[in-house]
UniProtKB/TrEMBL annotation:
Full protein name: Ferritin-like diiron domain-containing protein
Pfam families given in the database record: Ferritin (PF00210)
Any one biological process term the GO annotation gives: iron ion transport
Transmembrane segments: none
Gene Ontology molecular function: ferric iron binding; ferrous iron binding; ferroxidase activity; identical protein binding
Organism field: marine metagenome
Keyword set, alphabetical order: Iron, Iron storage, Metal-binding, Oxidoreductase
Listed CDD domains: Nonheme_Ferritin
Any one GO CC term of the record: cytosol
Domain Ferritin-like diiron span(s) in chain numbering: 20-165
Length: 191
């Protein structure tokens, strides 16, 4: 019996007015999002390694913090799935891309990664709304807001790199600025 079949047996019918467990569709989408967050973390770790190879340690530091944040996001989803009496299903991770032509291309790749995350989050939100799963919808709002911020930050860094790409001094100053990034505090979501 597959993990999905076993987990669908856990889906329960409960009395009106009590928190129901996840539908099979929402459970599948949340598990897909969980695995997407893990792949995103893996991608950011690969980007960090790329920047370390270029001796751009500030850029690498920034990517390592992104890696850690994606792991926190995955953990939030993991906890939520379990709190809803559903089954977490982990999938194998594909190897992330490891080479980029330039720091600019690497950050454009990071932006594309954030845009994929946003789209997947919206799929979960849309299904939760359609099913009137208020708990999942409320939980996912933290991720919606987080993605607005994440995309804006990465888009700003892409713009900054585009302005200084021809200047080694400009890239050095950006590297120094990115080295000063600290992990966000209070990334709590209503799990």
């Amino acid at each position: 019996m597959s993990a999905v079949a076993r987990s669908s047996r856990r889906l329960k019918t409960v009395e009106k007015g009590t928190l129901k467990t996840l539908s099979e569709k929402v459970q599948q989408l949340l598990n897909k999002q969980l695995n997407t967050e893990f792949h995103s973390a893996y991608t950011y770790l690969s980007l960090a390694a790329y920047f370390e190879d270029l001796d751009l340690n500030g850029f690498a530091h920034w990517m390592k913090i992104q890696y850690q944040e994606e792991l926190l996001h995955a953990d939030k989803i993991y906890t939520f799935i379990n709190n809803r009496d559903a089954r977490v299903i982990l999938e194998p991770l594909a190897a992330p891309r490891a080479e980029w032509a330039s720091p600019l291309e690497a950050f454009k790749s990071a932006l594309a990664n954030e845009q994929v995350l946003s789209q997947k989050i919206y799929e979960v939100v849309d299904e939760a709304l359609q099913e009137r799963d208020h708990a999942t919808h409320a939980f996912m709002q933290w991720f919606v807001n987080e993605q607005v911020e994440e995309e804006a930050i990465v888009r700003d860094i892409v713009s900054d790199i585009e302005r200084v790409i021809e200047s080694k001094d400009g890239l050095f100053l950006m590297d120094r600025d990115l080295a000063g990034r600290t992990p966000q505090v209070g990334q709590e979501s209503p799990a």
